Amino acid sequence: MSTIDTLSVNAIRVLSADAIQKANSGHPGLPLGCAPTAYELWMNHMNHNPADPKWANRDRFILSGGHGSMLLYSLLHLFGYGDLSKEDLMNFRQLGSKTAGHPEYGHTVGVEATTGPLGAGMGMAVGMAIAEAHLAEVFNKENYPVVDHYTFVLGGDGCMMEGISSEAFSLAGTLGLGKLIVLYDSNQISIEGSTDIAFTENVQERMQAFGFQTLTVEDGNDLTAIGNAIEEAKADLSRPSFIMIKTQIGYGCPAKQGKASAHGEPLGVENVAELRKFLEWPCEEPFEVPKEVYENFSRAGEEKAEAEAEWKAMFAGYCEEYPEMEALWNQYFDGKEAVKKALWEDESFWAQTEKPEATRSLSGKVINRLKDLMPNLMGGSADLAPSNKTYMNGEGDFSKENRAGRNMHFGVRELAMTAIGNGMMLHGGLQSYVATFFVFSDYTKPMARLSALMKTPLTFVFTHDSIGVGEDGPTHEPIEQLAMFRAMPNFHVFRPCDAVETASAWYSAVTSETTPTALVLTRQNLTPMAGSSREALKGAYVLDDCEGTPELILMASGSEVELAVKAKEVLSAEGKKVRVVSMPCMDLFEEQSEEYKESILPKAVRKRVAIEALSDFGWGRYVGLDGAYVTMNGFGASGPAKQLFEHFGFTVENVVETARKLG
Amino acid sequence: MSTIDTLSVNAIRVLSADAIQKANSGHPGLPLGCAPTAYELWMNHMNHNPADPKWANRDRFILSGGHGSMLLYSLLHLFGYGDLSKEDLMNFRQLGSKTAGHPEYGHTVGVEATTGPLGAGMGMAVGMAIAEAHLAEVFNKENYPVVDHYTFVLGGDGCMMEGISSEAFSLAGTLGLGKLIVLYDSNQISIEGSTDIAFTENVQERMQAFGFQTLTVEDGNDLTAIGNAIEEAKADLSRPSFIMIKTQIGYGCPAKQGKASAHGEPLGVENVAELRKFLEWPCEEPFEVPKEVYENFSRAGEEKAEAEAEWKAMFAGYCEEYPEMEALWNQYFDGKEAVKKALWEDESFWAQTEKPEATRSLSGKVINRLKDLMPNLMGGSADLAPSNKTYMNGEGDFSKENRAGRNMHFGVRELAMTAIGNGMMLHGGLQSYVATFFVFSDYTKPMARLSALMKTPLTFVFTHDSIGVGEDGPTHEPIEQLAMFRAMPNFHVFRPCDAVETASAWYSAVTSETTPTALVLTRQNLTPMAGSSREALKGAYVLDDCEGTPELILMASGSEVELAVKAKEVLSAEGKKVRVVSMPCMDLFEEQSEEYKESILPKAVRKRVAIEALSDFGWGRYVGLDGAYVTMNGFGASGPAKQLFEHFGFTVENVVETARKLG
Asked: What residues does B189 pair with on adjacent strands?
C-alpha cells in the first residue's frame, strides 16, 4: 500500500470521525471499516466523473448501509463532487446542510439513492442492474456500447439479514445480472453484539445458492486483494458477484474497533485523537487533509473525466450513424413532456366504455396502449400478472436470455419488487411499474415510502381493492391500506370509478415528475359513470349535481361512486338537493387551491356522507363533526362479493338511510 | 401404498376438488399435489387429538400456503375436528361458513394460524418452535417431558420466495430449532408460469446455508418416502429440518396437472369427473366418501387420543410431584387475570416520575418490572434493544445454548420478528413483545395485520416516534406510521406522554385478550404531566381543563401534550376557556360510549386544534371542518431534534397562534 493510498484511505476515516464528532451524532463504525474498500473501488475500478455526476453511462454505487453516510460524503468531498466543501462536512447532520444523517437522493450531488432502511440499497441496485441490461440491449450497436456500466452496492450484516436482500438476490441470480457487484462488509458485529447471537448462517453459501459468483477478501485493509476481487467480479459477466470483505468495525480506534460500540455513536474526542495516533495521521486540526491527498483525488478525477470524454465522442458517432437511435434515446431519457401532450390530445385515450368493466381490466388496456407510446415502459407483477392485468402483450419477458423483454416477472417478492422498481427509475431512461393485490401493498410499504421520499415517480398497480375480492376472505381484503397510502407524504393514491377515471389515474402516474402514484383497482365490474371526466386529475370533482346549492353531499371513490349516484336518485326524488362528489385521489384534492376545494365541498354544507368500502380513517377531514360514514369498520369476510357488499351495508338503501338520518 | 391409504389420500383430493367446484372459487392445485404429504404426516407422524384440538402438547401444523385451505379442511373433516361436517365443506367460501377462503385462526377448530399472505406461516412456525423450546426448558423435569412436541409447516414456492422465510429460517438455523420441520411443496409452478422465470435458486443449498438438515422426497406420491423423510427430520434434534417434496400441482387432473392453471381456479365440472376417473375414485356423488375411509381416520383419531391420555397421566404425576410447577404452569397458561389485578392494585406501578424522562426509558423500566410479575414474558428487538430499551435484565438470552433465556435477539428482521412473535403467542403459554424503531414498523405491517386479524394480543414497542429522532433524518423519522396503525381494525396504538400514560399503555397491552397493542415512544425526554392519569385507558381524557364549558379544545398525544398544556396557559391568561385533551390511544377512545366521547369532546365546541408531530391524517374526525392542525405535512429533516421541532412549528407560540386564528 503506497503512502498516498494509505493517506487517502485514512483521510476518509479521519474526515468521517471528525464530522461525526463535531455533529456529536452519527455512525463511525462503517466508514472506518470500509474506507479501503470504498477508496479502492472509487479510485481504481469505478467509471465515474466528479465533474458530471449525471453522466448516463457512469458506474452506479449505492451505499446500502446508509448509516455510514460519512464514508460517502468523505469520498464525494475528496473527489470534488458538487462542490461538497469542508464546511459541508462540518455541518454534517445539521438542519439544512447538504450532509444529512443518511444519504438522500436529490439532496446531495453524487448520491444515487436514499438509503437507511436496511436492505433497501440491495434491492435498488438490482433494479439499476436490470435497467442497464435492458437499455444496453435496446441501444447498443456494434462498436457502440453506449450503455455499458456496472452497478456496485455496499452493505453490511444488517442488509444481509433483511429479507429484501434474499428476495432481490434470488431474482438477480435467476436473471444472471453479471454487472451487479455486491460488496459485503462482514464485520461480525451488530448493535446488540456479535452477529453470532442471531446470524450464524453461511452467507457465501446462500449467495451461491442464489447463483452468484462469491469471492472473499480476508483482510479489509488489503487494497490489492480488494482490487483483485473487484476485477474478478467484473470479469464474470454471466452471473452477479458477491464479495465478502472481512473488516473490523471502527478500525483505527483502539478503544472501540471490533466492538458494537463503534457502530452508532461518536468515538469521543479522546478516541478521535487516538485514531489519529493509530493511523499516524499527519494533521492535528479537525478536517485538515494533506494537500497531496486532494491532489491524488483530483488527478484521479481528471483521468476519469477522460473516460466520459471518450464515451461522449463515441456517443456522438453513434448519433451520427444511427439518428433514429438518438431520437429513441431522447424518448427514453427525456420523453415525458411528449407523452403528456400526446395523451392529453388523444380523445380515444379518455373515452368512456359502454359496458361495465373492472378497473383492473381497463388498466390493463391502458398499459397495452401506453406501451407503444412509451417504449421505455417496463414493469410487472409479483407473480400476479394474470390477475393484476399488467402484462404488455407482445413485449416479451425480461430474462437472462431476453434482455429486450419489457415484462418483469418479479416472483412472489413484493418488497424487493418495489425497491427494484425504484432502482429502475433511479437509473434513468425507464418508466417502471410494479403490481400486486392491494392487500399485499403492506409488503411494499417500506420501499413505497422510499419512492415518495426520493421523489421517484414509480407507478403501483394494486388490484382487488376491497371486499370485492370476495371468497378469498379477510387475508386478501384490503381495509386500512387506502388510509395507509393517503397518509404518506408525496404519494398519490387513485381509486378510479370507471374508464375515464382509470385513464386519468394512469395519465397522472406516467406524467408525474416527482410523486409516485398507486392505482387502486377493482376485481369486479363497474358501471361507466355518465358524469365522470378528467376533472378526476384534481383529485375530487362534482360528478353529479343538483340545481342550486346542495343540502347534502355524497362523497365516494371507485366502486362506491355508483352507489352514491343511485342514492342521489332516490333522495332527489324525495326532494333533497344532493351533490355527488367523486374523490378518486384525496391527495391531489388536498393539493388544490382553497377556492377549488370550497367549490366542490362548500363549508356551509354540513350534511355529508363518505361512502367507501374501506376504513373510514381519514375521511373525517371532509365528513366533519356532522356527517356520516358508510365504510368498513372491521375486517372483511369470505363469501361471494355481492353478498359481502350487502352484508357490510354497501347498498343504495343503507346509503339513503344514512343520509336521511342526517335530517 | 395400501388400498385404504390410497383411498384416504384421494378422499382429501376429491373433497377438495368438489368443495372448490361447488364454491366455484378456490385453489385446487395445492390440495391435489400435497394430499399424500398431509395424509402421511397427520396419520402417522403427528401427535394430535381431534377430540381435544387445544391439547397443550400437540404437534403444531401450519399450512403456510393458506390458499390450499381445502387440504386442511378436508383433513379436519375426515379426522372429525370440531364437527366440521360435510355441509361445512359444501359451504366452502360462503358467507358465515366455518370454511373460509383461507384458514382463519379462531374461526375454524384445528386451524393453528391464519395464513394467506405468503411466507407468514413460515415465520409463525419458527415462533411456535421457539415457544416449545423455551417452555420445555422451563417446565420439563426428569421423566416428565411435559412440553415435547414438533412444529410442522407446509408451504410452497411462493412462501420460499418471500423474504420473510429467509429471515425466519436464518434465525431458526442460528437457534438450532431441532423440532421445527419445514415441508416444502416443490411443484415448479407459479401463477405467472414455471418458477424458472423468477426462481432458479438452489433452495436446498440456501436452507443448508441457514443451518438446516435438508432432505428430498423425489416423488410426492410416495408415502413411504415421505414418512421416512419426516422420521429422519424428527431424529435430528440439533438443527431444524427442511424436506423438499417434489410434487405435481393439481395431480390427478389430467388436463391441468403440472400447469399454472391448476393453481387458483376450480377445475371445472368435466375435469372433476376426469379426476375421479384418474384416481379410480369409487363414488360418483360429490362429497361422498367411502365408509372405510372415515373408519380409517376415526381409528387413527382414537389411537392419537391415547397419546394425549398418556400425556395427561404423566402431567398429573408431574403436578403431584412438583406442585410449584403446576402453579407456574397455570401462571403461564392462564395468568392474565392475576396480572391484571396485581398491576391495577399496585400504586407504585402507576406512579408519576419527578424528572423528565423519555417514554422509551420509562417503558424499559416497566418491562423490567413486568418480567418478575410475568415469568412468561418473552421478547426482544430487531437488533435495536439498547435503543428500544427492551432488554430484560438478568433474564438471559434465548439461544441454542440457553433455552431458558427470555430475551430474544431477532436480528435485523422486523417482518419475521413479528410473525415469530405471533407464533409465540399462538403457541400458548407466553406473552411476547417485539420492538424496533417506529419508522421501521413499516417492515412489520403485513404481520402486524395478521396479529389484528387473528386477535393475537402481541405487544409492539416502537421507539423514536417522530422528528424527535433528530439527526438520523427523514429515513428514520416516522410521519404516516401512526395513521397506518390507527386505521387498522382491532389494533391499539398508544402514544403516551409520560410515566403514568406509559404504565397505562403497558397495562392495556399485557391485559388485552384479543387486540394487539403498539407502544409508540419517544427518544427524547418528556416532562411529567400533572394531570395525567390512568384515564388514559379510555384512549382520551381531559388532562387539563378550564372552569365551565370550554370554548377551545387542544388535542394532543405523546410529546406534544406538554405543548398543549403550555399553550393553554398562554391562552387562559388571555381569558380563553381552554381544555386540553390527551389522546394517547385514538382506537380505544373510539371504543368508548357516545356519552363518554361527548363528555370529552362536546360537539358544540367547534374550535379544536390537533397537535401531533406526525401526519394529520385521521385527526379530521375530531378537528371537524372548523378546527386546525399543528402537525407534519411532509417528511422530516436531519438536524438536532430541538431545532426540528421549532423548524416544523411545534412551539408554544405556533400552537397559540393557530388557536387564535380560530377566533
From this structure: B194
Tens-place pLDDT, residues A163-195: 999 999 999 999 999 999 999 999 999 999 999
pLDDT tens for residues A237-246?
999 999 999 9
- Give residue A2's pLDDT: 79
Interface-testing mutation among A621, A638, A647, with chain B (most B C-beta atoms within 10 A): A638
For residue A482 the three cell numbers come to 387506502
With b for 16 or more beta-carbon neighbours within 10 A and e for fewer, the A617-638 pattern comes to bbbbbbbbbebbbbbbeebbbb
**Phi (first) and psi of residue B151, to 5 degrees:** -120, 120
A45 is in an annotated binding site: no
Q: Which residues pair with A322 in a beta bridge?
A: none
- Cβ A635–B490 below 8 Å, yes or no? yes
Rg from Cα positions in chain B:
27
DSSP string, A509-576: HHH-SS--EEEEE-SSEEPPPTT--GGGGGS-EEEE--SSS-SEEEEE-GGGHHHHHHHHHHHHHTT-
Q: What band does A631 get if pLDDT is binned at 50, 70 and 90?
A: very high
Segment B164-175 mean pLDDT: 98
> For B83-129, how does the pLDDT look when each residue is reduced to its tens digit (9 = 90+)?
999 999 999 999 999 999 999 999 999 999 999 999 999 999 999 99
SS3 category, A288: coil
pLDDT tens-digit readout, B279-308 = 999 999 999 999 999 999 999 999 999 999
Check CB contact under 8 Å for A633 and B489. yes
Please tell me the distance from the alpha carbon of residue B391 to that of residue B312, in angstroms, as a whole number.
36
Distance from the Cα of B400 to chain A's closest Cα (Å) equals 9
CA B10/CA B23 separation, integer angstroms: 20
H/E element, B23: helix B3-23
Residues of A assigned a catalytic role: 414
The C-alpha atoms of residue B273 and residue A51 are separated, in whole angstroms, by 71
Residue A634: partners with Cβ closer than 8 Å, 6 or more residues away: A479, B489, B490
pLDDT 10s digits, B566-597: 999 999 999 999 999 999 999 999 999 999 99
A117 is in an annotated binding site: yes
Alpha carbon of B588: minimum distance to chain A alpha carbons (Å): 14
Structure-block grid coordinates of residue B119: 411466507
Of the residues B40, B357, B414, B501, which is catalytic? B414
pLDDT at A235: 98
ipTM: 0.98
Q: How confident is the model at residue A447 (pLDDT cuts 50, 70, 90)?
A: very high
The SS3 call for residue A615 is strand
CA B164 to chain centre: 13
Cell 473527489 locates to A79
* 3-state DSSP of A58-114: CCEEEECCHHHHHHHHHHHHHHCHHHCCHHHHHCCCCCCCCCCCCCCCCCCCCCCCC
- Whose cell is 434513468? That residue is A428
Q: Provide the 3-class DSSP secondary structure of residue B157.
A: helix
Give counts: helices (H), strands (E), chain A: 25, 20
Residues A406, A395: contact at Cβ < 8 Å? yes
B563 close to B514: Cβ distance less than 8 angstroms: no
Percent helix, strand, coil in chain B (nearest 5)?
Answer: 50, 15, 35
For an interface test with A, give the residue of B108, B161, B482, B643 to mutate (most A CBs within 10 A): B161
Helix (H, G, I), strand (E, B) or coil at A379: strand
C-alpha grid cell, residue B236: 435430528
